[in-house]
Amino acid sequence: MAAQTQTQIQVQTNCNEPEYLDDLLCSGEELEQKQESCLVSPVRCLTGESRVESAWAHWAKLGRPKFIVAPMVDNSELPFRMLCRKYGAQAAYTPMLHSRIFTETEKYRKEEFTTCKEDRPLFVQFCANDPDILLEAARKVERYCDYVDINLGCPQRIARRGNYGAFLMDKLPLVKHLVEKLALNLQVPVSCKIRIFPNLEDTIRYARMLEEAGCSLLAVHGRTRDEKDGKKFRADWKAIRAVKNAVKIPVLANGNIRHMEDVHDCLEETGVEGVLSAETLLENPALFAGFRTPEWVAESEVGIIDGRLDQADLLVEYLKLCENYPVPWRMIRSHVHKLLGDWFSLHPYIREDLNKQSRLTFEFLYELVDRLRDTGTRIPLYLNDTQTGVAANSSTS
């Protein structure tokens, strides 16, 4: 297990040889001096156009990533991020981390935040309602990421009970304070992920407030707080475009992404710098390489071919990554169900065997895939034949 003095954040430098951060960076007195020198951010003195220029310079330094893994609780962990990166993702968010628990609990830090040198660009996302606690959590990760992100979009009941996420839309002075606290004290930029208000003008005022408070990048989920069901409610790309036109910092879009055609349409219609995907990636981590599930293949569509890849192949790749980058079994179990959901529908008795397992092993899961294959089932992922070159490069990288 790799460790950092005090924070105990696990960072692995490659698949097989974790190293201690003190060996990679500095140790003892050097580390303390470095931490002390980092207490005040250089962007503290930047205002107006200078801050905007700094935001764009940082985005350009990262290569202007367009295809991004969205933050997903328990589902955008390191091995899944690495799988998505192999298949075209150019940046990724961590799962949402609870800032208070992160500062208080070493076990939580070790299990919930792992990364490696190939895991960049990286957004580390926190939920929070206390600026001081948020800053304490952010300081523990700022050296291992490219943005510290504030979750202002979670619409679930747990966020209501915990007073964070989209329910801070009712407490804008607190939101402003959270952003300002990080912007004035971190070495990395602050990003925010938001949902839209029912009223467009309220959304625009919200976005401008975040920009003025020091947000360097804004991800906009084009649904309101009450529109939780992504299949029932279409994301409002026009609202995202309005936000893009209203602020000067880079903007990302989230919502309505099922395949690469949606990605390109979203980029064109909104004018944003990049697109986030969440639910679709869980079923198809190869989305950004041009693959699509049968659900999104129209019968009349021409040029669509078998991509010679399926979700069972992707699951095996994911499991191998998990062996190199350990994560809690609950995360692994969740990905098995998401990736093999269509297969389990055809063979529910195999899913029942999985559900009976109180403790999982890699051996059991590899055998489960073999059992599915032995049934003769294959549910291919499809490609537009113009994208086969891209897909080939992804599958061999």
Describe the structure concisely for a colleague.
This protein is an alpha/beta fold and 397 residues long. It has 19 helices and 13 strands.
Number of domain modules? 2
Helix fraction? 40-55%
CATH superfamily of the largest domain: Aldolase class I
Evaluate the radius of gyration: 21 Å
Percent strand equals 5-15%
Structural class call reads alpha/beta
The span between the termini is 27 Å
Q: Any idea of the CATH topology of the largest domain?
A: TIM Barrel
The counted number of beta strands is 13
The shape is globular
**CATH class division of the largest domain:** Alpha Beta
Main pleated-sheet profile: 8 strands, parallel, barrel
Give structural attributes.
397 residues, alpha/beta, TIM Barrel, 2 domains, eight-stranded parallel barrel, 45% helix, 15% strand, globular
Describe the fold and architecture.
The chain is α/β, with parallel strands linked by helices. It has two domains: about 45-290, Aldolase class I (TIM Barrel, Alpha-Beta Barrel), CATH 3.20.20.70; about 305-395, no CATH class. It has helices at about 20-25, 30-35, 50-60, 80-85, 100-105, 105-110, 130-140, 155-160, 170-185, 200-215, 235-245, 260-270, 280-285, 310-325, 330-340, 340-345, 350-355, 360-375, 390-395, and strands at about 10, 65-70, 90-95, 95-100, 115, 120-125, 145-150, 190-195, 215-220, 250-255, 275, 305-310, 380-385. Helix 4 (about 80-85) crosses helix 14 (about 310-325), helix 9 (about 170-185) packs parallel to helix 10 and helix 10 (about 200-215) crosses helix 11 (about 235-245).
List the helices and strands and how they pair.
Elements (H helix, E strand, L loop, with lengths): L9 E3 L8 H4 L3 H10 L10 H14 L5 E3 L8 H9 L4 E3 L3 E2 H6 L1 H7 L1 E3 L5 E6 L3 H9 L7 E6 L4 H6 L9 H12 L6 E6 L4 H14 L1 E7 L15 H10 L4 E4 L5 H11 L3 E4 L1 H5 L20 E7 H14 L4 H11 L1 H6 L1 H8 L6 H13 L5 E5 L3 H9 L1
Parallel strand pairs: 1-5, 2-3, 2-11, 3-6, 4-6, 6-7, 7-8, 8-9, 9-10, 10-11
Antiparallel strand pairs: 12-13
Helix pairs in contact: 4-14, 7-9, 9-10, 10-11, 14-15, 14-18
